[in-house]
Design brief:
The chain is 18% helix and 29% strand.
Amino acid sequence: MNRIFQYPITETEAGVTIEHFLRAHGYSRHILIHLKKTHEGIKRNDLWARTCDVLHRGDILQITILEEASSENIIPVAMDLDIVYEDEDIMVLNKPADMPIHPSQNNYDNTLANGVAAYFAAKNQPFVYRCINRLDRDTTGLLILAKHMLSSAILSQMMVNREIHRTYRAIVEGCPVPAAGVIDAPIGRVEGSAIERGVDFTHGERAVTHYRVLASNNELSLMELQLETGRTHQIRVHMKYLGHPLIGDYLYYPDFARISRQALHSYGLEFQHPITKNPLHFTCPLPADMADIMVL
C-alpha cells in the first residue's frame, strides 16, 4: 500500500526539524526509520531531505510511505466482506460471528485476515494486516483496519488515549437495576486458565464499563454498553459480575437455548479520521440472531 502526503509549512510550523514536525503529526520512530530507508521517502521542495533539516515557511514537505510486501503467513481466502467504509487510509468492516480476526493454531484460513488478504490480492495490491480494535471470534460488528503504517500508528495511539469511542449492544439475562450505571471493577486472569478472566480486586487491572437498558421483557434485556477501558472479555466479565450475564456465552454463561454464541455486537464507533481529522461515526444494526431474540 503506497501513500503520499504533502504538508505546506506555515509560519507557525516553521523553525523545527523535519523529525520534530513528523513526530507531532503521529509518525512513530519505526515509521521514521522506514522513511530514511525509502528512496526519496522524505522530500522538501522536491529535493531528498534528512530528518535533521529545518523547515521554513512556504516549504512543501512530501512524505512517501511505500509498502511493497504483504503480511507473511496470511493465506488469501476469498470470502464476502461487509465493508461499511473505505478510503485510502482506513477500512471499517462489519465482522460476522464465528470468525477470528487473526490466524492462530487451527485457524489458518478462516479468519478476517484471510478475507482481507484476498480482497487486496484481487486488486493486485500489497497489504499489511493491521486491526485496530479487537473483537472475540463470536462477537459481531464494527472494527477498524488501518491501510498503512501511519494510519495504524495514529489510530493505535488514539486507542491508548481512549479517543476511539466504542458502543456495544448485548442481550443479558434479567433486567439490571438500576437501569443505567457504571461498573468500575478490575479484571484479571482467572488462576489456572489461559483464557478466562474475572473481577479481581487484588491483582486485576482497572476496568470501567458504562451501561444502560434499552429494552426488557423481564426475562431478557437489550443493553447498550460503552467501554472506558479495553480489558479482555470486559463486557462479558462485568455483566456476569453484575448478575446479568450475556446469553450464549460459552465461558461465563454456557446456556445456548436461545443463541449459539455470546450475544454481543460492536454497534457503534466514533473517532477522528487519523489523516483528515474529520469526525467519523458509524453504526451497524443488530445481526439477525440477536434481533430475532429481542422482538418485544
